[in-house]
Amino acid sequence: MTFDNERILVTGATKGIGRATAKLLASRAARIVxxxxxxxxxxxxxxxxxxxxxxxxxxxxxxxxxxxxxxxPIDRLVNNAGTVTLQPFLxxxxxxxxxxxxxxxxxxxxxAQETARSMIxxxxxxxxxxxxxxxxxxxxxxHASYCASKGAVDSLxxxxxxxxxxxxxxxxxxxxxxxxxxxxxxxxxxxAKSEPLLRRIPMGRFIEPEEVAESIAYLLSDQSAMITGxxxxxxxxxxxx
Length: 241
Known about the structure:
Elements: E1 7-11, H1 16-27, E2 31-36, H2 39-49, E3 52-55, H3 61-70, E4 76-79, H4 94-122, E5 127-131, H5 144-164, E6 170-176, H6 182-188, H7 191-200, H8 209-220, E7 231-234
């Protein structure tokens, strides 16, 4: 499962799933183009894997579109960037809801649009993987905005797969449960919250970023040539309970 010098764009590439994915794909001969917010983390990643790094505020749709255009041609895309703000439903603010939609959904749409247009113009049979979450199917308390955004990512994935399939472009999503990233540690550090969820996971643990990265690499690769429009749970069996 190698990528033979193909240009792969990974958003949210500086931490967690994104960084693990960028490192894994680079180890498999990909040329990584990394989007992230923090310039120091981007420099660190570039030094580590020799990637092309761009600081982008994905909450700004126009800046995101311009950045996506500027890095073409891209052969494969990982829409990984995401954010979470924890608020009870009755206290969920319009500002927090909009911010999570902007970063988790709208940036995904805009970057995929520009990348798919480039693929179609070049006749490239590319692949796109959107990083979603089991939160698209489960109503976690205090996650109203986040759950809504990931439900939107799943729906967007299916529409993209439907419309881009005739151009030879496959689109899938991965749907992890809690992944041990800084964002997840923030959300699930309270044992009173995490233990009930762990008891529902047959494998008995949360997930490492590298495990999600392997699933992303599979869906990006030609080994999954007839898989499109799928939401792949990476959840240790959570959704069967």
